[in-house]
Every structure is written in structure tokens, then in C-alpha cells.
Amino acid sequence: MHYFTSFKFTSRHSYVELFCRIERFPILFVFDCVSICFFIRQHLKIKNFGKSLLLSLFLSSFPDNFLSFAIGRKPLLFEDKLMVPYFFAVWFLLNYFPFDLIFKLISLFKYFIFFIFGFSQTFNITRCLDKSVEIYPVDLVYELIFGLVVGIFPIFGIYIYSRIEKSNNFHLNLSFSFFIPLFISNFYFWFTDLGHISTTFWFDKEEMRLFLVLVNGFIWLFYGIFQGRFFSIFSNFVSFVISNSVPYYGSTWILDVKNINQQKKSK
Questions:
Q1: The whole model's pTM is what?
Q2: Radius of gyration of the chain (CA)
Q3: Where are the alpha helices (DSSP H) in the chain?
Q4: Residues 6+ apart with CB under 8 A from 171
Q5: Do 124 and 63 touch, CB atoms closer than 8 A?
Q6: Structural contact between residues 172 and 43, judged by C-beta atoms closer than 8 angstroms
Q7: Distance between CA 121 and CA 42 in Å, rounded?
Q8: Integer Cα distance of 130 and 136 in angstroms
Q9: What tens digit of pLDDT does each residue of 15-65 get?
Q10: Distance CA 98, CA 187 (A)
Q11: Contact (Cβ atoms closer than 8 angstroms) between residue 155 and residue 177
Q12: What distance in Å separates the CA atoms of residue 254 and residue 257, rounded to the nearest whole number?
């Protein structure tokens, strides 16, 4: 309460400090559970009780378990007694609430689910990068891989399961899901004191985390609203930059998606 009495709406540091008070448990973990369970329900439509429960639990708790395993401890799922109850409450409400009311209600605000997924994803990536620098202080590759794995795996795990089950309901773009964590990891690493890109040009980690969380949240929000159109615009922009930045050869690195699709249809 004392903090809120001293909060200043015109002060940037007040927002950063308030943002830093957001805890992984239960707030961000519940965000992960809600978004992952919603994506699995929407894109996989698993009818088997056990498969849905285990896959949702594995992907929702993956960032915490991966980080615990990396520092030589047991998966956090077996150490924190509150993780499973929090997860089970979210999973049950989304999948087995009477008349499916919770899922239908959340579906009305499904674009907000994309936002909180991007919000939580950035938290997980930056938190993992901070820890990886402590574990591997001089190994840049391991540090960035840590952030990428944590950011990519939840969506990638849903994709792998959809391929195993030969499901056609998966509509999230895998390339987009890979590029965003790659961008977040590198931006956070190089423009804070983690990467030491410059002794004069760098940003405070908490301010950068707040900036990236909001940026990634809105990127996923726009992706959720526009889906294929958003990725098409994004892909065309990247293609334009590459083809114009690299003389001659740049244009040869871009796949002509339209011609490829036309060739597939003609076959």
C-alpha cells in the first residue's frame, strides 16, 4: 500500500518499479496456463483427458522446469507444491466447466489471450537470459540458446503434437513464432549490460524488459487479429529489406511464395 501512495502517473520510474513487482507465481504462471491451454484447446482439439492434461501441464511449466534443470536442480514442477493446483484449476475451467461457459467467454476475448501470451513469453525469455549469463558468463551461444528455447518451445510443442496426430487444426505460423523470440533475445541481450555492446550506449534491464514486454504483447495481439494477413505483411517487409540490403544476391534469398503456391495447386 505504501508504494501505491507514492506512485506518480507522470514518472517513468514509477511504472518500471510497478512492473518489476509482477511475480512469476502466481500471475505470470497463470498467464502461461491460460494461453497454452487455450491454444491447445483451439488448435489441437484433444479429446483424450490424459493427453490434454499432460501436454498442457508440460508446456505451461516448461520455462520453469527448463531453468531449474539448467542450474542442476529437479524440475520446479516437483519442488513447488502450488504449480499443479494452479495449473489444474485453469485447465479444468477451460476444458470441463459446465456448458463450456469459461472457454466460450474467453473465446470472446481471444485476442487478449494473444497479448498475455506475448507478455508472458517476454518475461520468460528475459528471465532465462539473466540466469544464463550467471551460468555461462563468457559463452554467448549458450546464453542466446537459453532464451530461444524458452521462447519457442511452447508453440513448437503444440506444432509437434499436431504433426504426430496429423491434425489440420494448427494455424499458428511457426516461422513467426521463431522470429519473435529470436528478436526479443538479441534485442534484450545486446542493448542491456548483458551483451556489453557499448560502454555508453545501453539501457537499464528493467526498462528494456518493460519495453519488450509491451512490444511483444502488441505484436502477438496484431497477429491474433490479422493472422495470415499480418504474417504476409511482415514477410513482405522482411523480404523487401533483405533484397534491397544485399546487392544482387539478396533477391535470390527470398522465396517466391506466390509462385510456389501456384505450382502446388497446378500439381
A1: 0.82
A2: 20
A3: 2-5, 12-20, 29-43, 49-70, 83-96, 101-108, 110-135, 140-164, 174-190, 205-226, 228-245, 257-266
A4: 43, 227
A5: yes
A6: yes
A7: 19
A8: 10
A9: 777 777 788 888 899 999 999 999 999 888 888 989 999 999 999 999 999
A10: 44
A11: yes
A12: 9
CA 195/CA 205 separation, integer angstroms: 11
Domain boundaries, the chain: 22-226, 229-267
Among candidates 37, 36, 39, 44, which has minimal Cα distance to 169?
Answer: 44
pLDDT tens profile 227-265:
766 666 666 666 666 566 655 544 554 444 444 445 545
- Amino acid identity for residue 175 in this structure: S
Mean pLDDT over all residues of the chain? 81
Contact predicate 147/184, CB 8 Å? yes
Contact (CB, 8 A) for 152 and 177: yes
